[in-house]
Amino acid sequence: RLSYERQGKTNSTAMLGPIRKGLSVLIVVLCAISLMRNLGFDVTAIIAGLGIGGVAIALAGQKTIENLFGGISILMDQPVRVGDFGRFGTTMGTVEDIGLRSTRVRTLDRTVVSIPNAEFSHMRLENFEKRDKFRWLSQLGIRMDASTDQMRLLLMQIKELMLSHPMIYKDPARVRFVSFGASSLNIEIFAYVKASNHNEYIAVVEDMNLRILDIIRNAGTDLAYPAQTLFLERGAGISKEKVADVEKRISQIKEQDGFPQPFYPSSWAEDKYDTLDFPDSVPDR
Fold it and tell me: Do domains 2-128 and 134-227+239-272 have the same CATH topology?
């Protein structure tokens, strides 16, 4: 018991009580049979009766026994623990209790689902608590009238942002112009976030999204809006001043080192690692 507790397997210690009681009953029965035999009683009929009765009980309680052994395997192997959040078959929620017959899961709708242990132990169990980082996959739709130089600048600056952000893993930190949409030029962003929980993850993603929106607007373009009809634009439209400024910056980049796409050499990337300011932890709520 102390060994399990030192390993943090508190659920396993809960099984020791029922196991101890079961072994005690078995020892008492065997001792009684042995004593009766020593006193001269014929125990053959008793043993045969116990065997037949055991078979009958096993057949009648087959599901109960399956659930019992399923619960023991869950508690000993510990694919999940009480308090873990995950997806269990088609159910998503937090494990509230692992009993001898069933496991109770509190769903996102705050209902409680009881799953028999025999069924639970054969499910596909996805434990979100044990992941070491969070995947971030996002797709941006840029206006179709964005120039190729604007797209190159967007790709370069978003890549630079990902490398400079201290909460983004540098490998892989991928940003690519992947496809042409019906009304957009599609950029895909893929990276892993250094987060210990979901709240911290969405805080980092929010920060990245706001910074990316600034990059898009400062490049003289914008996010695309679904459109399949001809329309007359009476608003401000794309800023000609910003377009001219972007073209000037692009020509400067071309004259100096050129664009780093498509492979972003280490000589360009290394001096950008973790250069942005970002809080070390999420404040308590």
Answer: no
Tell me if 74 sits within 8 A of 80, measured CB to CB. yes
Of 48-52, 263-267, 276-280, where does mean pLDDT reach its minimum?
48-52
- Predicted model pTM: 0.60
pLDDT band at 21 (very low <50, low <70, confident <90, very high): low
Q: Does domain 134-227+239-272 have CATH number 3.40.50.1580?
A: no
Which residue ranges make up each domain of the chain?
2-128, 134-227+239-272
Q: How far is residue 164 from each of residues 96, 132, 158, measured CA to CA in Å?
A: 40, 21, 10
Tokens 């078979």 belong to residue: 55
Work out the angle at residue 235's Cα, subtended by the Cα atoms of residues 232 and 236, and round it to the nearest 5 degrees.
125
Query: Which residues of 181-244 form beta strands (DSSP E)?
Result: 185-193
pLDDT in tens, 114-144: 888 888 878 888 888 777 889 999 999 999 9
Q: Which CATH class is domain 2-128?
A: mainly beta
